[in-house]
Amino acid sequence: MTTSTEAKRDTRFFGHPIGLANLFGVEMWERFSYYGMLGILPIYLYYSVAEGGLAMPEATATSIVGAYGGLVYLSTIVGAWVADRLLGPERTLFYSAVLIMIGHISLALLPGFLGIGVGLVCVAVGSGGLKGNATAVVGTLYGEKDSRRDAGFTIFYMGINLGGFVGPLLTGLAQSEVGFHLGFGLAAIGMAIGLTQYTVFRRNLPDTAREVPNPLPARRRPAVGGVLVVLVVVIVAGVLSGIVTAANLSDVVVWIVGIASVVYFAVILTSRKITAVERRRVLSFIPMFIASAAFFALYQQQFTVVAVYSDQRLDRDLFGWEMPVSWVQSINPVFILLLAPVIAAIWIKLGERQPSTPIKFALGTSVMGLAFLLFLFFAGGTGNSTPLLALAGILLVFTVAELMLSPVGLSLSTKLAPDAFRTQMVALNFLSVSLGTALSGSLAEYYSTDHEAAYFSVVGGAAVAIGVVLALISPFVRKLMSGVR
């Protein structure tokens, strides 16, 4: 076991602690498996049985994908609680990785709907547990004032995008050449490699990564177990009674996350532990929470509407060879790798002259809406007629919008957080992502290639309108932010 002091003095990985190499690797393989699976999941659900799929209606398939994505981000809150109260971030990360691998194996080996049910639940909960805790463990490698800290996180996030780029390429090729289950199997193999590597080298992580910050008293554990049992019973009853179905799953998740968000805001705003200034800052986060949810409702349609569009409307012919549908999912990570340093450099260059956070949110949401309006240039076409280069250009606009809003959200939630509710404000940011991702599945139910002009007009126009409204009220929002820029 490595002590905290030893880890912070370590320079064996290009000047960084060797533990960063382990975390880079496990996150890369987790993203490889996650995006690799997600790249072929929608078409697996709605392709015919003859094509190796489950022959679901397209609306049901996109509902499941949207609900699954929403549950991943909802599970980050559960993962954070488990780390804070029960296991610590390092062990939570390890068990989450095990759960993810079990999920991918289930998708690869279990037939039909059984594999989908077991696989997606395991991957969603596991990914939620791994996502936040991997970041937390990276933080334990560095001292508070360590000048290597930002560079270390940059290297770590390179692993995310590298995995997100390669995963859909390999699983999509396996699916198109052999079949879906080999594609899911590659995702399982990728996660197995990441888990094996992490297990072998986890001793290089500092002992602080294994600490439980706020241990749950033993006397309260039975009550927590009881709540968990009740939750499982309610879910099972909802499914068996027909209240929750595959077709309305994303709508159910939207309602759950929406209610949870309202409760979170109400608890914080009515607490006696916050000051008047802190209360105003929390109020200022509400319009940006709405803008964030609207942004991700469109952005996450890469895995719902854009996946269907890539299958049915995109010309994927490459010199006589048809490109797999999932390869489209590898375009965005490339643009992120290329543009993230550019956007960061622009903000640094502008310094105090850069747009305020509300304006960045407004720009991100409006540009995302503009990306959907760009689809109108190709609306009304027949078959796979949209040029691949055109879709790549639209996804470039997706990426620009993402870099304006997504990196800012987490930072903003920490800056606006009251002292007594720092973790809860971060949870609210994840809830906005969860709400938007679930909405991406609900909105996709209204998409069809026969009415795509109306769909892209309404959805894109609504996002632009939300961005414009936020820009107009930004002076009032900045006033509520009380000095936070």
Describe the structure.
The protein starts with a helix and ends with a helix. A hairpin with a 2-residue loop joins β1 (317-318) and β2. By secondary structure, the protein is an all-alpha fold. Strands 1-2 form a two-stranded antiparallel sheet. 49% of the residues are buried. It contains 17 helices and two strands. The radius of gyration is 22 Å and the shape is globular. It is found in: Cell membrane; Membrane. Keywords: Cell membrane, Membrane, Transmembrane, Transmembrane helix, Transport. The chain crosses the membrane at residues 32-49, 61-82, 94-125, 155-174, 180-201, 222-246, 252-270, 282-299, 327-348, 360-380, 386-405, 426-447, 453-477. Belongs to the major facilitator superfamily. Proton-dependent oligopeptide transporter (POT/PTR) (TC 2.A.17) family.
Query: Which stretches are low in confidence, meaning pLDDT under 50 for 5 or more residues running?
Result: none
Give the number of helices: 17
Helix proportion of residues, in percent?
over 70%
Strand order of the largest sheet: 1-2
Keywords: Cell membrane, Membrane, Transmembrane, Transmembrane helix, Transport
Subcellular location: Cell membrane; Membrane
Transmembrane segments: 32-49, 61-82, 94-125, 155-174, 180-201, 222-246, 252-270, 282-299, 327-348, 360-380, 386-405, 426-447, 453-477
InterPro entries: Dipep/tripep_permease, MFS_dom, MFS_trans_sf, MFS_Transporters, POT_fam, PTR2_symporter_CS
